[in-house]
Amino acid sequence: MTLFHFGNCLALAYFPYFIAYKCTGLSEYNAFWRCVQAGATYLFVQLCKMLFLATFFPTWDASVGVYDFIGECMKSTVDLADLVGLHLVMSKNAGKGEYKIMVAAMGWSTAELIMSRCIPLWVGARGIEFDWKYIQMSFDSNISLVHYITMAGLVWMFSRYDLPRHYRLPIAVLLALSVYKAFLMESFVHVLLLGSWTALLIKAMVTGAISLSSLVLYINLVHSN
């Protein structure tokens, strides 16, 4: 049962990435190693973020159950480095905008999947018969894929030299929501004492709303040019 459960979790976590890689045409461009390079950039950025957090935001000693809203907000601000990393990845790849976006997003999200979900999944599934939290982690990895595709698209649009001025404010707002989404979700869950499945559903809805808004801006921007 453990092996079967582990296989289900891996299928839920990895198959959407495989399908996205095949169906978006990245396989036709032989973009595998470019995605690997994007993943390596992700690891480097995360290392820099951890060093920065360890230096300027040491562990806060507080009572059990107390949520430090200000401290968590400041820590979420460090996630702005992800925007810089995504821009760096896309600037090193030549090609159409959608190709740059997908390479950066696929490499970034795959590295994040391996580091933050698949390793804990492998460790945990070896010692359990069944646990819904690993199913939740698998679904959460799919939400992260959409999140990073959206973030990469927003970074690409915002960094265009010919971006019309009236696009800058909505794109900047969506970028801010993407960066602080995790902090807002954690605060929302803490205040309302939401369950894990409810929190996952709300996270999917928020990610979907941001993604659809970004898609509308992307389509209008591309068609206007």
Structure description:
- The protein is an all-alpha fold.
- The chain has one domain (2-224).
- Helix content is 80%, strand content 0%.
- It has eight helices and no strands.
- It has helices at 2-23, 32-56, 69-77, 80-91, 97-125, 132-158, 165-192, 196-224.
- Helix 7 runs antiparallel to helix 8 (196-224).
- The longest helix is centred in the middle third of the chain and has 29 residues, at 97-125.
Rounded to the nearest angstrom, the radius of gyration is 18 Å
Count of folded domains: 1
Could you give the order of the helices and strands? HHHHHHHH
Largest sheet: none
Number of discrete helical segments = 8
Helix percentage range: over 70%
Instruction: Assign the structural class, choosing from mainly alpha, mainly beta, alpha/beta, alpha+beta, or little secondary structure.
Output: mainly alpha
Task: Work out the strand percent.
Answer: under 5%
Name the average pLDDT. 80
Catalogue the unreliable spans: none
Counted beta strands: 0
Distance between the termini: 54 Å
Shape assignment? globular
SSE layout and pairings?
Layout: H1 2-23, H2 32-56, H3 69-77, H4 80-91, H5 97-125, H6 132-158, H7 165-192, H8 196-224
Helix pairs in contact: 1-5, 1-6, 2-4, 2-5, 3-7, 4-5, 4-6, 5-6, 6-7, 6-8, 7-8
Keywords:
225 residues; mainly alpha; 8 helices
